[in-house]
UniProtKB/TrEMBL annotation:
Gene3D superfamilies reported in the protein's UniProt record: S-adenosyl-L-methionine-dependent methyltransferases, Vaccinia Virus protein VP39
InterPro entries: Methyltransf_25, SAM-dependent_MTases_sf
Keyword presence, Methyltransferase: yes
GO BP terms: methylation
Protein name: Class I SAM-dependent methyltransferase
Coiled-coil intervals, chain numbering: none
Length: 254
């Protein structure tokens, strides 16, 4: 597994400030993780930490935090935010399938459906092997991924809308999603056509997201020596059902 494989799938994160503004107020995963980490005194590692949405408030609560991400721009913004919050976090630009940190943790977390960036069986296995090598005995790994709801993935979904953005520019946006049942990968493409003074400029970005089925997830964890502690349908601990949008996975190193 090479860094290039992941870096070719990062177009959606080209503007870290915009990404941060969109998601910074989301707290449900943070509340869940804080509850699980309540009695821990050892360091905590967050993988795919992005702009520090979870890492920074946890550091503010006194946890020793290590944040890892492959996107340098996201990490730069996370470091700026951590400085403003006056917290010390060990940030590192790394490929999560090849972790090389100077510590082992009792808890490793990865949120924001980042698990879906591991597009192949090999990359999923490499991730879990990497996580396992950085966990203390009986350490836990908590992460989320979208639940593959077949009725939503069965057809190509294309939506077009026109709106005026905050700069009073007219924007026509086309979002297209197409699922490949063989690879279990959803290809999401966004095309924006921005009109300024009768001049139209087109922007395009895309992202590939792998879906993993519940029984497939159970087998994957078992094969890599993890015990499934719980699988919820949301960060609010709602029961997991076929209609759940998410799989919230809490597993423990055997």
């Amino acid at each position: 597994m090479t860094v290039d494989i992941f870096e070719s799938n990062l177009e959606k994160y080209a503007d870290p400030q915009k990404y941060d503004e969109l998601y910074n107020n989301y707290k449900e995963d943070l509340h869940f993780i804080m509850e699980c980490a309540e009695k821990l005194t050892t360091p905590i590692i967050e993988l795919a930490c992005g702009t520090g949405r979870v890492t920074i408030p946890m550091a503010e609560h006194g946890f020793s935090m290590y944040g890892v991400d492959i996107h340098e721009g996201m990490l730069d913004l996370a470091k700026q935010k951590a400085d403003l919050a006056n917290v010390n976090i060990h940030f590192s630009k790394q490929d999560c399938t090849q972790l090389d940190l100077p510590i082992k943790a009792s808890l490793i977390v990865m949120v924001g459906n980042s698990f879906q960036h591991f597009l192949t069986n090999e990359s999923q296995s490499d991730l879990l092997n990497s996580v396992r090598s950085h966990l203390l005995p009986n350490g836990e790994f908590i992460f989320d991924t979208r639940n593959p709801i077949l009725k939503d993935l069965a057809f190509v979904d294309e939506v077009e809308e026109t709106y005026t953005n905050h700069n009073d520019q007219v924007v026509t946006e086309i979002n297209r999603e197409e699922y490949n049942h063989e690879t279990q990968i959803l290809q999401c493409t966004t095309v924006q056509k921005v009109t300024v003074n009768h001049v139209r400029t087109t922007y395009k970005d895309s992202i590939s997201l792998r879906y993993t089925y519940p029984m497939e997830m159970r087998r994957l964890l078992s094969e890599h020596h993890f015990e499934l502690v719980s699988m919820y349908g949301s960060w609010k601990k709602e029961p997991f059902t076929k209609e759940s949008e998410s799989m919230i996975i809490r597993c423990r190193l055997l």
